[in-house]
Amino acid sequence: INKVLAVVQDLGYASSLAARGMRSHRTNVIGLIVPDVASYYCQEIMRGVNRAIAKLDKDLIVYTSGVMDKENIAQHERSYVALLNGSISDGVIVVTPTATQFTTHAPLVIIDPNNETPDCPSLIATNQEGALAAMNYLTDLGHRRIGYITGRMELASSNQRLQGYKDGLAAAGIPLNEDLIEISDYTPEMAVICAHKLLSLPDRPTAIFAANDMSAMGIYQAAREFGLKIPGDLSVVGFDNLREAAGFNPPLTTVDQFIEKTGTMATEMLVKLVKGESL
């Protein structure tokens, strides 16, 4: 299921940076802050960033917060931005931030912004439209009882995908049933738990839409544990189109949000800001 990217940007950002005064010394280094370098999503982002810096003749430094509690992740994100944009890099890209405030005097671009992240250039997929396309696919197959497993609800993407799920129900004339929605965090581990709850309902869903492909992986595991066959007993749709999704058995039907391209576009945006150009 194809979809396109939407660029969200603060048009006054470049001028505000200029007003604060850009550093004359350039390091030729781009900083990238990701929540987990082991995640397939972050690896796709890094591929895109790497593709861009190779063309732009830049160097890359990657920081990760790793696996820790939410408050520590936010603290580490803020400290990494302050460190990298203080002297090490010319600008920083932050992926799916937990922090809601950053202190920086150099350009900052965010991929998949937090609902409360301050105004700065950011890239986000057309999540609502993509989720609606996934729902249309399922309802066209005749499904009327469709479960949904969300992502991290502090991220704009997760809220938009949830709205797309609801829009899809409304478009098909299907009443919203909150019992069919499970709040998750984009991880397969949590998705297994959520899928167990959905599949344990007296009238279980005939299809489950996952907010991302890694959550779909958790649904596949839960379906096996319940002895259900995909797609014969349960239809599953994901969101991301990760390379790994093609290796699912059976292959996963998923929404393509062009993650690698997002990394490339974010890097190109950041380099423009470093040069003082408008986006």
How many β-strands, per DSSP? 11
Low-confidence stretches: 11-15
What shape does the CA trace take?
A: elongated
Overall mean confidence score, pLDDT: 89
What's the helix count?
Answer: 8
CA-to-CA gap between the ends? 29 Å
Question: What kind of oligomer do you see?
Answer: single chain
Percentage beta strand: 15-25%
Short structural summary:
The chain is an alpha/beta fold and 279 residues long. It has eight helices and eleven strands.
Please render the helix and strand layout as text.
Layout lengths: L4 E4 L4 H8 L8 E6 L5 H17 L2 E6 L5 H19 L2 E5 L12 E4 L10 E4 L1 H14 L5 E4 L6 H16 L9 E2 L5 H12 L7 E4 L2 H13 L9 E6 L12 E4 L2 H16 L5
Parallel strand pairs: 2-3, 2-4, 4-5, 5-6, 7-8, 7-9, 9-10, 10-11
Antiparallel strand pairs: 1-6
List the main descriptive attributes of the protein structure presented here:
279 residues; 6-stranded mixed beta sheet; 11 strands; elongated
Describe this structure as you would to a colleague:
The protein is an alpha/beta fold and 279 residues long. It contains 8 helices and 11 strands. A 6-stranded mixed beta sheet has the order 1-6-5-4-2-3, with helices on both faces. A 5-stranded parallel beta sheet has the order 8-7-9-10-11, with helices on both faces. Strand 9, helix 7 and strand 10 (235-240) form a beta-alpha-beta unit. It is elongated and about 65 Å long. It starts with a strand and ends in a 5-residue tail after the last helix. Mean pLDDT is 89; it is low at 11-15.
